[in-house]
Amino acid sequence: MKIVACYSNKGGVGKTASAVNIAYGLAKAGQRVLLCDLDPQGASGFYFRVKPSKKLTDARFFTDVKRFTSAIRGSDFDNLDILPANMSFRDFDVFLSRMKNSRSRLKKALKSVDKDYDVVLLDCPPNISTLSENVFKSADAILVPVIPTTLSERTFEQLLAFFDENGLPKKKILGFFSMVQGTKKLHSETVEAMRKRYGKRLLDVAVPFSSEVEKMGVHRAPVGTFARNNAAVKGYDLLCNELLERL
Amino acid sequence: MPEILTITTGGDLRTLLRDADLGKLHLSLDEADGGSAFTLLDTFDAQVAAAELLLLLTEDGLHLLGGAAPLVQAHAEPDFLARMPAGPVTKRLSGIVSPLRTLMSVAGGTLSRQGLRVLDDNEKTHLRGTLHVLDAGKGRTVSVSDLTPLRGYDKTLRKVGSALSGRAGKGKVNTMLEASAVLRGEDPALIGKTRVVMSADEKAFKAANDIIRAQLVAARRQEDGIRADLDSEFLHEYRVALRRVRSVISLFKGVYDDKQTADLKARFGAIMARTGRLRDLDVYLIEREAYLALVPEGFRPGIGKLFDMFAAQRDVEHAKLTAYLDSKAYQKEMAKLEALFDKTKALSKGPEAKRHALDYAKALIWKRYRKVCKIARDIDDATPDAQVHELRIECKKLRYLMEFFAPLFGDAEVRKLIKALKGLQDNLGNFNDYSVQQAALQAQAEALVGGTAADTVEIASGLGALVTVLHQKQLEERARVAASFAAFDSAETQAQFRSLFKPGGEAKP
């Protein structure tokens, strides 16, 4: 079981949409996926029409295995389950370390229909906090969506610096270009410059901007379900393949 | 394994689901497939449906509906289960379908399938499954749908389950057995078994006639299967039904007058006599592997040849019996007997004919029970075999009487006592079978004289070995009789017999 965090210290980069489409893409590729909606503003659960569970607001939540597993909801898609949002993160670090410990009750209880999840994807809140630090420690990979602009480059730089300062392994960071508009000169120049500078910290794939992705809120579904041949869908599929290779 | 809800109804389930009050939930149906031909497979006595399963054969495979999850495997023609290809469907059916019974086509028609989902007000799916509408023509339609909750939506499953419970739809179909009966065009109460309604104050004469009439129906239902030689259970069930008829005639003393009793005994006896040899051979052939395993390796080729002889004899006997069943004489005799028990006016009544059934039943069962106990309590290791045989026959009579009159005493109570009796009966039955088989095999050995020299010696030595083993087995069963009876003769069972059957005591409603 691999833990993958979808994280950005900058808002408006399509983090939640990416988490939703990547979860869907991985499941479509046959991976058993649990998408955890940890971002109170993101509501990845919203895109899967899953109602937030009231029970999850309790601080005790993360220490209570049964409450955790019974809050998981099957999405309408094979291999893809959702842990809905609205939770307190006080004990989240405990939760994450237990998830990694093969002997813990949580690890044993945390299963899809009959087998372990292959990937637990965390849709993380967009700030650097104690929570994010623990996520960085526990996750096997941290997916960071980057819009190729100067401002985004700056926040990506800040994230790497934070890893350095705190002695965190930078190789976990997997940035990817998101909402790329090939016609914009700034975008293509930034992509080129960042690839030179950050090398393996960036995935090869670049997910193009698409108005279909913006329509996910209307459809309340991953973009691949209603715009199958969209360029962004192909981008997410390639991203899933590359992610699986890197894990 | 997730919980699963199987909804079985008569008619079209879609109407039922549309009318059900599901609150904020609603139903969504995918487009139906084009429809395809199906064959309903089961044993003649509906063993699959009795286990709450439906086995369908379509062009694209064998489908098993009901149970924990719908199963499918590649298309295969019906046969004995052991002869069908291995797969999830046949695996699930082993232990449900008797190895003695063949699966056969029992109904057919058109199957239409469509995806079915239960959604909430956000259009989020909570439950999904497949709706099967089975149409066997002439208005014989049933629907079977499985609904599985997506993870975390078990509550919805329970909600939908309770909203639909008790809403059987058309024809009061709630179970797979009932659904199967509708498709087969049979009465669900009669499928695979006979059931006689009886009241405490009806006359013994009526009770006897009702039982016999039901058993005659049961016997005649088996005739086609015997002719077609589908499996050996058709003949077995045929004989069981006729044996029950004869038991009523001989055990319900005084219901018919002496002359009538003697006449009926003789006529049913004559029919039964035609079937005995074929049944004996069937029993040997069923036990072929078990017999082979009983004797040392060296004797097995001889035993194998012996069974080949039995198989050849069986074919001859089967042809003879079929010819008899097809004969005008048999058809006429059966028609006459059926008419006799349909009209009943021509039956000569005996002195007990007008007694109330309950009184009469208690007297018969109590007397037979006391007789069983009396014989059994005297049995020890030194008792002659003849007395053990007598005990077996008395037990059988007691069992039949209890089964006949079970509707008067409460099926569940009687079933418990029959279960207690069964342990003893199995022991006595084995004892008897081993003894009968030894005699029959010895007779076979004598008949061997005149066969080709090499084979005769080989078969005879095999026979000898087998008889020796069977004798040993018989002694083992004999040694257990006293203990088997002691197990049956518990204080609790005694008290139950007394309270249910002792004349003068109160009967349970």
What's the main sheet of chain A like?
8 strands, mixed
Helix coverage percent of chain A: 40-55%
Report the total helices of chain B: 18
Oligomer: heterodimer
Number of helices of chain A: 12
User: What is the molecular shape of chain B?
Assistant: globular
Question: Most extensive interface: pair and counts?
Answer: A-B, 15 and 11 residues
Question: β content of chain B, as a range?
Answer: 5-15%
What does this structure look like?
The complex is a heterodimer of chains A (247) and B (509). With 247 residues, chain A is of the alpha/beta class. Chain A has twelve helices and eight strands. Chain A has helices spanning 15-28, 44-47, 65-70, 92-100, 105-109, 130-138, 150-165, 185-198, 211-214, 216-219, 223-226, 231-246; strands at 2-6, 33-37, 73-74, 80-83, 119-123, 141-146, 173-180, 202-208. In chain A, β3 (73-74) and β4 (80-83) form a beta hairpin. In chain A, α1 (15-28) crosses α12 (231-246) and α4 packs parallel to α6 (130-138). The N and C termini of chain A lie close together (10 Å). Chain B has 18 helices and nine strands. In chain B, a hairpin with a 5-residue loop joins β8 (125-135) and β9. The radius of gyration of chain B is 27 Å and the shape is globular. The two termini of chain B are 42 Å apart. The model of chain B has no long low-confidence stretch (mean pLDDT 89). At the A-B interface, β3 of A face loops of B.
Short summary:
The complex is a heterodimer of chains A (247) and B (509). By secondary structure, chain A is of the alpha/beta class.
Characteristics:
heterodimer, A: 247 residues, alpha/beta, 12 helices, B: 509 residues, alpha+beta, 9-stranded antiparallel beta sheet, 18 helices, globular
SSE blueprint:
The complex is a heterodimer of chains A (247) and B (509).
Chain A: E1 2-6, H1 15-28, E2 33-37, H2 44-47, H3 65-70, E3 73-74, E4 80-83, H4 92-100, H5 105-109, E5 119-123, H6 130-138, E6 141-146, H7 150-165, E7 173-180, H8 185-198, E8 202-208, H9 211-214, H10 216-219, H11 223-226, H12 231-246
Parallel strand pairs in A: 1-5, 1-6, 2-4, 2-5, 6-7, 7-8
Antiparallel strand pairs in A: 3-4
Helix pairs in contact in A: 1-12, 4-6
Chain B: E1 5-10, H1 13-19, E2 26-29, E3 36-42, H2 47-50, E4 54-58, E5 61-65, E6 71-73, H3 88-93, E7 104-119, E8 125-135, E9 141-149, H4 154-164, H5 176-184, H6 204-221, H7 223-228, H8 233-251, H9 258-273, H10 276-286, H11 288-294, H12 300-326, H13 328-343, H14 357-377, H15 385-409, H16 411-448, H17 453-488, H18 491-501
Antiparallel strand pairs in B: 1-9, 2-7, 3-4, 3-7, 4-5, 5-6, 7-8, 8-9
